[in-house]
Amino acid sequence: MTSPNDSNKNIGNDDNNTEKSTPDKQNSLLLGIIERATKSGLGRKKLNPSAVESAVAKNMAEIHSNPTKLRLAFLGGGSFGTAMANLAARNGCDTTLWVRNKRTVKAMIKTQTNKKYLPGYKLDDRLKYSHDLAATVKDKDIVFIAIPGLAFRETLKNIAPFISGQSIVSLTKGMEKDTFALMSDIIKDELPEVNFGVMSGPNLAIEIMKNMPSATVIASESEPLRHAVQAALHSAFFRVFASDDVKGVELGGALKNIYAIAMGMAAAYDVGENTKAMILTRALAEMSRFGVEAGANPLTFLGLSGVGDLYATCSSELSRNYRIGTMLGRGMNIDAAVKKLGQTAEGVNTIQQVHEKATKEGIYMPITHALYAVIYEDKAALGVALHLMEAGFRSDVEFVMAHDHSNAALTAHMKTSSSSAENNKDDTDHK
């Protein structure tokens, strides 16, 4: 296999030395999902674990012993972008972190800290900082983009003149407002000739900075790019797994933000563990259902970028989306909650995007529709939750049994319940 360290060009060349395999059908719980994936043509080729492990280990050894082997740029000085840049620098890669504000860059150079997003955590002495976008991007092997979704397309347009063979890896989770474009879609739009990948997983930046064992997924159709990212970021406390399902990995990272808001709202009502477990499992069903309609492999949602990221984001007060949900559950409106948070919560935009897409395509997404009703239609959260509990019956594990309720049935039920409640109120008022 060609080492990802040799040149930018080699990172883009994908040698496919994988072999087909049949899913293990002894696991009866996953049988329906596996068969669905196989019948729909969504099954992926299975990597040869020993060959991959050997190749990545070799590349890691070369990179870590020679810092000039891999040149990386990280665009975006938020918590996750900073944490990943710090990890790469600590691994010995030639790493530059780009931040838009010149004053912020000067402060980071002086203090070796990111006071706004990661206060109290010293960054690696070898990490470089820059506010010069052209100088940061030029002559790099891989450019990691950790910019909020609202500015993602603009950032790609800005770096386009300086791209001459670099690979692009998105660290941004979410969807572009009004277009339903994932970050990979935007990369293909703005830089159609560029080799790219996406990274996602349960990656709370503060825990990574604390060296708490964590893991992520790099998804790309290019095997050399996957290996390069693994070699650059893999460490004793941070594991990097590979996938070729770009759509599934990216959707997992985007959709889970919706349910983190739902879980934050539930926490505000001090719900029990049974309720939390129900929300998590039904959220996973919604994610996989939506993913399959978008062309993703449903099995991807059982991995780190699916259930792993979902669990971490829905159970941690470090999650921005969870905190937004908590504020909403306490009666704060969405504008006030976002202002108080002071950071981007991608789930707010994602709820609107997915609600509109699911409604148009007829995809059954009851939790998403309920959140949309609370945030954008000013419905009472408790009332919407009660409607959800009353709304029909479905089978437990997705893709195993046929369902007897659709979005249309759910909508009709909620409208009927709402009308009934209003009529009861009118009757009470007239007594």
From TrEMBL:
The active site is at residue 256. The gene is gpsA. This is Glycerol-3-phosphate dehydrogenase [NAD(P)+]. Its EC number is 1.1.1.94. Keywords: Cytoplasm, Lipid biosynthesis, Lipid metabolism, NAD, NADP, Nucleotide-binding, Oxidoreductase, Phospholipid biosynthesis, Phospholipid metabolism. Residues 72-223 form the Glycerol-3-phosphate dehydrogenase NAD-dependent N-terminal domain. It comes from the Bacteria. NADPH binds at residues 79-80, 100, 117, 173, 205, 320, 346. Sn-glycerol 3-phosphate binds at residues 173, 201, 256, 309, 319-321.
